[in-house]
Amino acid sequence: MRDFSTDHRWLSINTATLRGEGSLDRIVAACARHGIGAIAPWRDQVAGIGLERTARLVREHDLALSGYCRGGMFPAMDAAGRRTALDDNRRAVDEAKALSAACLVLVVGSLPGALAGAPLSKDLFAARSDVHDGIAATLEYARSVAMPLAIEPLHPMYAADRACVNTMEQALDLCDAIDPTGSGDLGVAVDVYHVWWDPKLEAQIARAGRARLLAFHVCDWLVPTRDLLEDRGMMGDGVIEIARIRGWVEAAGFSGWSEVEIFSREHWWKRPADEVLRTCIERHRSVV
Ligand code: ZN
User: Fold this and answer.
1) CA-CA distance, 97 to 61, in Å (whole number)?
2) Over its length of 288 residues, how does the chain's per-residue pLDDT go in tens digits?
3) Domain boundaries, the chain
């Protein structure tokens, strides 16, 4: 297992962690001040300053992209809706490619309308079927431009609205069904926040192996958690044994970035970016 205690060369910052700082150019400048080597930006943040300007900033600061957030949201009520989702995923692949991202992260979606608070269906099986077909179609295009796709299983509390893929096992079953060769074009993003509770986690990480492990996201699970989406903890402030999980991931062959992804409306998004980054670096060394 790599020693993270003396430097932060493997630390990546998911730019959602610094939403409180405002626009992406300010976030990139803050990361540069702290010697961060990689980021994972969100599409809305990139759209905020433009793709070309983002690409220029990434080059200027010699930043790698540990991932690009995000594609997915495949299920829809009809063919036109599914087509719209595929078109959008194609654009996401192109943006990820323009920024030389390590992978495009997929949050696959679930019941149509649920994310807006008005589910139009209760058919989780149909949603899963749309997800399978959507990933297969997107993979075909992503392969043609050499952009790996990383399915991110989400905690089951999001099963209705954000993702009907909720465990590593389920995500890997999908990978095996769609991409049986295990070429490295399709894999998973392991986010400790979503999977730490899973009794099968160690075995499924081993099953994933180097070819399927495309990203590793860290934060912590706070007790109590006050908001289902925006109350993630700083590493070390919650109950996840992050280093143990990183040990499993690295034993399986993963040697990429450790990406800090913290949605924290009431705490970290209200702190100055320099304080957030100083804390990320310190915790990356001590508890990741
Ligand atoms: Zn994540």
Assistant:
1) 18
2) 999 999 999 999 999 999 999 999 999 999 999 999 999 999 999 999 999 999 999 999 999 999 999 999 999 999 999 999 999 999 999 999 999 999 999 999 999 999 999 999 999 999 999 999 999 999 999 999 999 999 999 999 999 999 999 999 999 999 999 999 998 999 999 999 999 999 999 999 999 999 999 999 999 999 999 999 999 999 999 999 999 999 999 999 999 999 999 999 999 999 999 999 999 999 999 999
3) 11-286
Please give the biggest Cα pair distance in the chain: 53
**Which residues, 6+ apart, have CB-to-CB distance to 237 below 8 Å?**
220, 222
Residue 40 Cα to ligand 1 middle (Å): 10
CA of residue 179 relative to chain centroid, distance: 20
Rounded to an integer, what distance in angstroms lies between the CA atom of residue 270 and that of residue 274? 12
What's 11-286's CATH class? alpha beta
C-alpha of residue 81 to centroid of ligand 1, in Å: 25
CA of 191 to the centre of ligand 1 (A): 5
Q: How far apart are CA 9 and CA 6, in angstroms?
A: 9
Q: How far is the CA of 126 from the centre of ligand 1 (A)?
A: 24
Tell me the CA–centroid distance for residue 131 and ligand 1, in Å.
18
Which residues, 6+ apart, have CB-to-CB distance to 273 below 8 Å?
18, 20, 21, 26, 27, 30
pTM: 0.98
Work out the angle at residue 122's Cα, subtended by the Cα atoms of residues 113 and 162, and round it to the nearest 5 degrees: 45
Nearby residues for ligand 1 (ion, Cβ within 5 Å): 191, 217, 261
